[in-house]
Amino acid sequence: MSTSPKILDQSDGKLLAIITAIAYIWLTLMPGSNTMVLLWPWVFVWQISLVMPVIWLLWQIWYQRPISALKLGHHLDILAGLLGIGIIISSLCSKFPQYSIWYGWATLCMLAALYAVKGWLNSPARRQWILMFQGYLAVCFIVLSLVLWLTQTYFPELDRLQALQIVGVEARFDFSTNSLRNWHPLGHPNYVAGYLVLVLPLLVGLGIQQQKRHRWFWFVATSLGSLCLYTTSSRGAWLALLVLGLVGAIIVAIYSKMPRHLLAVLSLSSVIVMITMALANSRFRPLILNLIQGKGSGELGYRIITNVAGWQMGIIYPLSGLGLGSVPQSYQQYRPFWAGREAEMVYQLHSTPAQLWAELGVWGVFIPLMGTFLIGRLSIQWIQEQRGVNQDNILIWSILAGLFSYLIFSLTDYQLDNICISGILLIYIAVLADEFKAQQFSQSMQFPHHLYFPTGHRYLVGIGAGITIAVGIWLIPIHRAWALSNYGFFELREGSTEAFVQVLSKVHSLVPWEVYYPYQLGWNLGDLSYQTQDLEEQEDLRRKAVEWLDIANKISPSHEFGHSNLGWLLINSNPKAATEEFIKSTRLVSAKQGVFFGLGFSLLQQGKTELAVEAMALELMRHPLTLTSPIWQLRQFRPIYSEILTKLEANYDDLLTQVSDLETDQLIYQLRGGLYWWQGDFEKADEDWQMENNDFCQILLAISQGQDINQEIDDLPVSPGTLALQAWLMPENREQLLRQAWLSRPEAIPQLGVESPTGDVVDQLTQTMSSAETFFQWLKMLAPNWQPRSQRLGFGVLMRHIDGSLPSDFLPRIENIPMTEFFDIVLPSPNYLPSWDIALQPLRQNLIDRVSFD
């Protein structure tokens, strides 16, 4: 069978096909492509890449290619038409229509690519060629991914671990750390895993199909791809392949002539290998053990939260959804309060069904379901026709396997906005449509082979070209704004604030619906206002910052970021307005650090001391380490600190009489014990910690009372807190132990590393500890502190722009370093414990109601 398609006439659009293929290769192999397209000028290249398939399709229609050659057949074209209608309706009804048009146009371009590829596939040789092309591209992807991961992640981490061993810190390579998983070249390990789930079955099929002298290449590629998949540590991908393996074993059992006992041995061996590899993975192992013990996990909770939010979005707008691209703008409005600190902000809902339901409503449910049903039905008919697996049909079997495994994987993630993944899907669907159409399963489901569009077919090209030009004109100010903003951010980095403001003000006038630019103006001006010592300049900068953040909040009112930071800018000049902003923040993300603290501070500024105390107590309940902050020694808070602690204790007492959940009950005892301990009431702390049965806290309590417990401390697991306690008990090794404690913190792996400012911090810890008479005195009175900024990591990616600054909250933070970095387990704040936030919600709502009606 020939693997080189012959170009018979100009209706193929050979040059356009080549340009489209080059763009597809670029978007697949360019390192960080999924992020780089958010940066000028790559976003413009991305848009050009999207429009190339449209031009290619219009070219084919212009040269009177039979419409039957372009059609998918078997009613799939009806679903494609319904998808286009659904996108239009959703965009017209969207609260953020410009975002919906942006993403809707990208979707329509991919739909055009599907038809362009289908029109090009006019022979079995071309089907073979395009699958070979995809196979070779996948091999390049795998090699690039492994090379980048090894050189930029794995080997540097091994060097870091070796450096840690020199100072006595034992640590292993840990896949549970997100930055250590293989995210190359797409920017996220789940994207890489999704890509591999689609292509690995194809590589297996190509290996089986090829002659022996070429077979080794594809099987080596499959092995490297499997290794690459393992380095992503994607649990969704592992589940998808496990299910695929079970289904594949059943199919082989039906069609294979292999002896049943040999088949059983091979199947059992494969399952054992997969389970062994999963247990060997430091990310999979805790999940498996938790599931065996009936426990949940934060990442499972993450998906529960996003799916619940997606359901709420769709149920409120069932006929249209929120509109494509609207989820990041609206998510926090629908995020459940019991989500705690988990999944505070997302770009996508980590479930394809949830995402499509949220953004398209019934269109996003009916069309995929019907598409899956039709392809499934046609696949079954095809299987019945083929009656077995052989070298001639193995690639179709491989495509079906890839689609089936990705269908399972898509339940745990949404990746259709990633061009290289959508590209594989449309290639597979086009090949299947061409194969199924050639089989002629049912005449009632077929279109006539030689159906041509009426003589006015070029009018159709004119309409398509007109729409493309209209969208291009609509895109001009967006891209002009993007280019100008990139220059404006350059001016900001060069220190020219005035030029930055002028440029981004013009940018905002070009695209007044874009929230990113007012956010950047408001945050940067506000940040500069905190850095200047000139009171007049400070007031002017802050006034302008308030104006821009207010504009941003009107454009997109469902972002806690804008309300919280606006509240901090207003807290001195207009505390009542600040209170209103913090209330909005608490309604969006009630467990966010600082929102109740800011609410309390704004109420205190208005003289509403009782309400301020309640708000501060609620902040300490959700973020109890704030209890140990030196911020309470500032003149604004010192007078009410004791009242806050009294209220906090009363809240714990009340909740203990109301809560019936065992885990939450234990958490309250732990927190109340920590409150007593910090106040120096060791007897009451001991009573509560006995209820919680925490060995570390018992030893901490003993050391706080001056007891000698060297033997007991040796029985504790090695941790930063344990090492810090040993540093107190062994003064001769104090500096070394504190250095080990500092470098073994989770936060130090691998972001800070050995080159972080370890020396200065360790010196401060060592000096202050050596000057203390008691351990408790050191922690409470002498321990060093710092003032970190709460960075909004991923802000640019979530806003779909990465040209600008990475914002940090204006929330004032002063942290007791050893308490925050070594002894945080004494006063824990669980990211995800729904029963805890459910218990706190009545207290929050009662306070908000009282403030609102005050």
Distance, first to last CA: 81 Å
Task: Determine the structural class based on helices, strands and strand pairing.
Answer: mainly alpha
How much of the sequence lies in strands comes to: under 5%
The main sheet comes to:
2 strands, antiparallel
Into which percent range does the helicity of residues fall?
Answer: 55-70%
* Radius of gyration, taken over Cα atoms and rounded to an integer in Å: 30 Å
Low-pLDDT regions:
1-8, 442-455, 750-756
Oligomeric grouping of the chains: single chain
Average pLDDT reading: 89
Number of strands: 2
Please state how the strands of the largest beta sheet are arranged side by side.
1-2
What does the overall shape look like?
Answer: globular
In short:
The protein has 854 residues and is mainly alpha-helical.
Word description of this protein:
The chain is an all-alpha fold and 854 residues long. It is 69% helix and 0% strand. The chain is built from 38 helices and two strands. Helix 8 (189-209) packs antiparallel against helix 9. It has a two-stranded antiparallel sheet. It starts with 13 loop residues before the first helix and ends with a helix. The protein is globular.
Strand and helix layout:
Layout: H1 14-29, H2 33-36, H3 42-62, H4 67-70, H5 76-93, H6 97-120, H7 124-166, H8 189-209, H9 212-232, H10 235-255, H11 260-280, H12 284-292, H13 298-316, H14 327-334, H15 352-360, H16 362-386, H17 394-409, H18 419-439, H19 457-493, H20 497-510, H21 516-531, H22 535-555, H23 560-570, H24 575-588, H25 595-605, H26 609-622, H27 641-658, H28 662-678, H29 682-692, H30 695-704, H31 710-714, H32 720-729, H33 734-743, H34 758-770, H35 775-782, E1 785-786, H36 795-799, E2 815-816, H37 817-821, H38 834-852
